[in-house]
Amino acid sequence: MSKPELLIVGGGPAGMSAAIEAASHGVRCCIVDEGRELGGQIYRDAHAIEREASPDLINPRGDELRKQLAALTNLIEVRSDSMIWGISDGNKVAVGKEASGTEFITPAAMIMATGAYEYIPPFPGWTLPGVMTPGSAQILAKNLNVMPGNRIVVAGTGPLLYVVASQLVQKGINVVAVLEATQRRDWLKVPFAGWQAWELLKEGFGYLRVLRRAGVPVYYGRIVTHAEGDAELSHIYHAPVDKNWFPDRDKEECLEVDTLCIGYGLQSRNYLAQLAGCKIEFDELGGGWVLQRDKRLRTSQPNIYAAGDGAGVAGSKIAELEGRLAGLDVAASLGHIDAEKLQQKNKPLQRELERFSSLKNTFARLTRIRPGLTELVDTDTIVCRCEEVRWKEAKEAIEHGGHDFRTLKVMTRLGMGMCQARFCWPPMARIVAQYKGCDISEVGPVRPRPPIRPVRLDVIAEAQSNQTQETE
Ligand SMILES: Cc1cc2nc3c(=O)[nH]c(=O)nc-3n(C[C@H](O)[C@H](O)[C@H](O)COP(=O)(O)OP(=O)(O)OC[C@H]3O[C@@H](n4cnc5c(N)ncnc54)[C@H](O)[C@@H]3O)c2cc1C
Q1: I need a labelling partner for 344 at 20 to 30 A (CA). Which of 36, 71, 271, 404 fits?
Q2: Does 207 map to a domain?
Q3: Element (H or E) spanning 290, and its range?
Q4: Tens digits of per-residue pLDDT, 160-172?
């Protein structure tokens, strides 16, 4: 295919829908995704053998979207197993692939559909083998057909807990309990607030039914305060919490488990957009630091759009709709459709977006991170897993003037490891803000630099020589 007009970063529901919509109006697109198949987190494709092992857990919507994409191959180039590790000059995009090195693409427009990460706050014992996120357990059980453990507790907050717990049950795994931090009375509001998105409510009740039939208790208003074990996890301790998630330690209970799946919702993944110069802002209900966008889903940078969880955590239905809206807008801005057609196509999509937004907002309010969670760390708790920085070291650095990501990184090495602060900084920013008694915006986000993910040196070296040749 000749040079793409539109580059889409991420092949989840948002990215796939954006490509389908734009290409069906004649836009030449390229989707880049680091996964071996398109699908993103929810529709991640499974190998044939795993499909056979878990047919009930495969979501047919992923296959439908992949089929629609395949019908447009003359206009959509798919680059899977490829990672965009940097952007310079606003739109010079470095696409790296092991074995074939780095290629630079300069598209006329870009849609960032980069998805989200799970949010994992540090607490005593969280680095023990046997503690993992619900998403990791899901990948093991659903996509790789590997049992994450034999006695599992799923804990934290948000809809993903129920999805994963029920999937583990369907794989025959003993889920001892689900511990949800938010109070039950607050969850009871969900059906009233989200009745318009009835299909999602039905899906949610389906997960609860699986858990009830299997006799898995769901305890609301409880958090895991610490985990213990010699070489690996053997016990967790959990306690009831007040509305700000401060635990009542006198009522702590212990459970014997070999696996704890723990996650407190999702946070937007937007390092790449930041490298392209897109502005971000802190949005408590959107998953932390999110991209600034206008009504047309355009970021602050010309011709760069953002759709789906990467722009603000909202779930797969909204990701699909936003992907389509962004794809349409790009088609209009590149002259493939006129303003009248754009408006006509936008209307039903906007109505659908509206239909899902009340449920999305309700979930966002229910699962927002509360201050009690940030006070679980004790002096010896590791707060940066990659560099093994402990809270006492970070605290000392704060007391000696460390006030934001950059200063704390230089003083303690926090955030300098493989994950490049993706996992440690979001909860640490809250811990630092709470400790100093200031607003989180004063503590600030990570300022990402290329490469945004670990890349082999020969891939970067080759990129450098390609760039030099280009300028000669
Ligand atoms: C671990 C996890 C498990 C989830 N499980 C469920 C579930 O079971 N059910 C459910 O309803 N919802 C689930 N969700 C939420 C749901 O997946 C999302 O709401 C939805 O997928 C958002 O779609 P998206 O297209 O915005 O992002 P995603 O589906 O996350 O897709 C983003 C894609 O971008 C790619 N990407 C990002 N950066 C780059 C880069 N620099 N270079 C190349 N590729 C890149 C990623 O590899 C990913 O494939 C899960 C979320 C997570 C994080």
Answers
A1: 71
A2: yes
A3: strand 288-291
A4: 999 999 999 999 9
